[in-house]
Amino acid sequence: MTKKRGRVTLPSERNFLEETKELMEKWGADAIRDSDGTKLDDDIKDLDAKIYTTYFVARNHNDFIREHMEECQQLFVISDRVTSKGTSLTIDFMNGFYSEQLVPDYNHDPKEWWQVYNRTTGELLATNEWDVDQENHQVIIHKTLPFNVYTVSFLVYKIWDPTQMYNHTTNNWGDSVEHDIPFNVRMPHSNKFMSEYLKQWLIDNPKTDVVRFTTLFYHFTLFFNDLGKEKFVDWFGYGASVSPELILDFEEEYGYRLTAEDFVDEGYYNSSFRIPSQSYLDYVEFLQKYVSKEAKKLVDLVHESGKEAMMFLGDNWIGTEPYGEYFKNIGMDGVVGSVDGGATMRMIADIPHLKYTEGRFLPYFFPDTFYEGNNPVDELIENWVKVRRAMMRNPVDRIGYGGYMSLAYKFPDFIEYVGVITDQFREIYDIVKGTKAHTGLKVAILNSWGKLRTWQTHMVAHALPYKQIYSYIGILEVLSGASVDVEFISFDDVIQNGVATDIDVIINAGDAYTAFSGGDVWKNPELIGKIRQFVYEGGGFVGVGEPSAVEHHGAFFQLSDVLGVDKELSFSLSTDKYFHTPVAEHFITADLGSIDEIKLGEVIDDVYALSEETEIIEYSDGEVHLAANTYGQGRSVYISGLPYSFENTRLLIRSLYYVANKEKEMFTWYSSNPKVEVNAYPEKGKYAIVNNTNELQHTIIYDGEQKEHSIQLEAGEIRWEEI
């Protein structure tokens, strides 16, 4: 059998020609790329493959920026909260920050741009009440209230790019590799340089076929503490794009001036979990417009040279939100991003306005994974199986890897298994891409961000979950590979337009007062009324964690009447609560074994049933963790949390069909074993039975006519059948 070739990108490096040829054959690679810290020799660039070359727009040009250090990138940061013990106070505002990455900006007048707050009273101090000691990096507050807490919000220059810093420290580059200094393309010298340098670079790199922008101008918010460890990281954070010049441009367009507080946000830095203020949303829109306009100039230059432009969805990606209104104006040919599971696979694969998408698979070929005694095959298989679920719904157009290929090459089992993956990927792509998979439901995820953050709820940097989101991130992972259509809608969408008629189920999930649960927006009677009407007239609602939660007019869950449950805040302990008997059986848990084995993540304490009409499915420790309720012609389900697992995948799917009143339809292209899934492609006349484990599995599948078939699948097997 001749090995197929194509749709795979291979990382390579200097002095690696023969090995590159071998790996191109093993993996069927048709493209070769460099990585941060590697370069390709000319003989590698002459191979029969597309050549991707990493290109840094706003970093990796220290010869330029050292002549214009006033044009370094900037951000607002906030000092420690310091308690005044008397009537005056000195704050060492750089305490806790990494001086090799951040330095105070004294070029722009601190009295105009910095802010000092009494955080006990919430009062902004007048500029004549404090002074700056630039030599010692201190703010002296002349008159304070004893035992009140004060902070300084101040402007800094960023003199070490966070990604290069991470790569630098992870790989122990030491003094042999210079620190990359990022520069701000809004500034005149930097703006001129970025275009002129690219023009010459395109001439000097005739063998480059694809310019891989990594990424463009502004890095997501990431800065380090005085130990060189991450102090704050938000993959969605816009804080590192700020400068006084941009703020003045913003004021001219929007009619008001942003302040330091708009960015430091009391120390929360507008993390994606915060309900966004209108000023922050305005700034996000402003920056997207600015970045798309400037990025288009670079993409046009690439196209004029006969090359393709690709963007890495990471690092300096802020302002290029791929589901935003302005991304299409940039004209990118492709987007590549790191894939750690089904949700990130769909986040990339579903991006519109592109010629192709590419997933950079894990593990990354760095020494923190590829070292003697470790087996990277385990991580490879775990990642692939999760990603493959989503591919069965909508695959990316290409896959690849990154890092030091010479490290991975030392692990022959790893190299062989990647060859298995690349073959399987091409088979999936040839059948699945461009065809409509069987879909039983349409589900809408409701939060503050809506479409802008499609497939990005509860997501954080480096794919590392916070403890508090362990119970929610599984929802996206489940849906990424499920036989449902998924849409992301915002509270404003519902308030302004109601619920679209093609939506079967709405999911609202998150902790109270976060952007995902919604907070104060649930006090809006327009929102509440439209959601209630949607369910009452036959729609479905699934609430996870603290849905619709805000204490208001005697209830905490504002949709408690729809959900049939509410949460005790200790305000109504004197009101007896009699309903705590679970139902003997329920459709939602019918094939999940013992209810005691279901793991619902971080428990939401003190949720109770409102009446005997509430169907309690799981009750323990004096509280409800899983319940269903009928509301008019519609239904709802409450789940305390949903970390990703095979059992919870089944639990959510059954919940969705139940609240949509479509229980019978669930048994179309269905597997009795939660570890096996069935995906059907009627237009292609095929269906796939997928073993999502690395073990032998037995199951009964239900075909398109709901007829039963008993089958056995080998570890990791995909079995394709004709309809």
From TrEMBL:
**Gene3D superfamilies the UniProt entry points to:** 3.40.50.880, Glycosidases, Golgi alpha-mannosidase II, Immunoglobulins
Q: What is its EC number?
A: 2.4.1.211
Which residues belong to any copy of the Lacto-N-biose phosphorylase-like N-terminal TIM barrel domain? 6-438
Top-level taxonomy? Bacteria, Bacillati, Bacillota, Bacilli, Lactobacillales
Q: NCBIfam families from the entry?
A: 1,3-beta-galactosyl-N-acetylhexosamine phosphorylase (TIGR02336)
Q: What is this protein called?
A: 1,3-beta-galactosyl-N-acetylhexosamine phosphorylase
Which N-terminal residues, if any, form the signal peptide?
none
GO MF terms on file? 1,3-beta-galactosyl-N-acetylhexosamine phosphorylase activity; 1,4-alpha-oligoglucan phosphorylase activity
Q: Where is the Lacto-N-biose phosphorylase C-terminal domain?
A: 669-720
